[in-house]
Amino acid sequence: MENGHPPGASTDGDEGTSPPTVLSGTGEIGEPVRTAQGATYTRTMTPEPTPRPRLVDVAREAGVSVATASRALGKGSELIRADTRDHVRQVARRLGYRVNPVARSLRLSTTGHIGMVVPSIGNPFFMELVAQVEHCLAERGLNLLLADARMSVAHEDHLLRSLESGAVDGLVVAPCHETYSTPALERAAAHVPTVQLDRGVQLDVPMVGVDDPHGIRTLLDHLAERGVERIALLSNTGSNVSSVTRVRAARAVAEELGMRLDPDDIIECSFSVDEAGAAVNRVLDRSGAVPDAFLCLNDLLAIGAITALRGRGIAVPERVQVTGFDDIQFAALMRPTITTLHQPLDAIADRGVSILMGDDDSTGRIHIEGTLVERESTRRRPGAVGE
């Protein structure tokens, strides 16, 4: 018995009874307290849980690359020097590193390949995203197998079936459609570790992408400061959740800022230069009035809009201002150069690959804020805020 209680028994009172009455002591951390029941105890502070060590932490502490640390702790250890392998393993034990099951499945694999499926390699945005993912994988000693869904849900399903059957050790997917891509992605994720990038379906599969509402607000704030009152929006609504989210945000922010965005001025088209040009012509032909600005949900649409406006003798930005979204390389080469929302693809790719490899325990949807890149397609008007 200790202080009237069996060894190991709680001194805070039995279950279902009132807490003990304190006769002495303030109950501060570390100070003994005596209760009416005759018990004496000392309050202690429960320590904050420490983050689980990650593979990148082991690599940093051991002074080696992540790829070397991965090999030292799994398959491929015979490919590195014995003293390096032993050193990495010693560091891992000291840090309390435990192999993540997802990462282990990748390290114990036989292919060394990660598959990536994108909606269209013809879209420069996805090629830039692919380049960033490939760079992250190469740092970990893994190879990328790229597949183009060609904007077809059926072809996307075919590609995922091929890749999930043992051709790769993990999958990085930018789904074609927020709804119709769900069955194929759900099946693939049940067979191989999977992460979604840029856009995602409603599944318990991690997704990393830009913060769309923040990006739209940034662009509309920029236009409002430049005297814009009426806007038209070029969108690809209905095909992916990013477009839907951006349109919803544009409506809300435009109303908040007192900007006019008529339902008829939200034009749906595919993400292509030609479709954007046709959409701009429809807006101009329908009303005869030229909006103050075109808010385009990607840079290809902005390029198409500027091309169509110039073809009709409408100067950008003197008569109409235009913004894009993504900041692909062509946005800086267009004349005029395009004001746009820069997506941090390096950070998005790194976070997604880290989750896939088990170095990051994040789940659900992770959104990373983009930044405004101000170029020649927008301007300040007399009387605008900040003039």
TrEMBL record:
Listed name of the protein: LacI family transcriptional regulator
PANTHER family (alphabetical): LACI-RELATED TRANSCRIPTIONAL REPRESSOR, TRANSCRIPTIONAL REGULATORY PROTEIN
- SUPFAM superfamilies per UniProt: lambda repressor-like DNA-binding domains, Periplasmic binding protein-like I
Boundaries of each HTH lacI-type domain copy?
A: 53-108
Residue ranges for the region (Disordered) are 1-53
- Biological classification of the source: Bacteria, Bacillati, Actinomycetota, Actinomycetes, Actinomycetales
The superkingdom of the source organism is Bacteria
Which organism does this record belong to? Answer: Pauljensenia hongkongensis
Q: Which PROSITE patterns match?
A: HTH_LACI_1, HTH_LACI_2
Molecular function via GO: DNA-binding transcription factor activity; transcription cis-regulatory region binding
Q: Which Gene3D superfamilies match?
A: 3.40.50.2300, lambda repressor-like DNA-binding domains (1.10.260.40)
Q: Enumerate the UniProt keywords alphabetically.
A: DNA-binding, Transcription, Transcription regulation
UniProt xrefs under InterPro entries: HTH_LacI, LacI/GalR-like_sensor, Lambda_DNA-bd_dom_sf, Peripla_BP_I
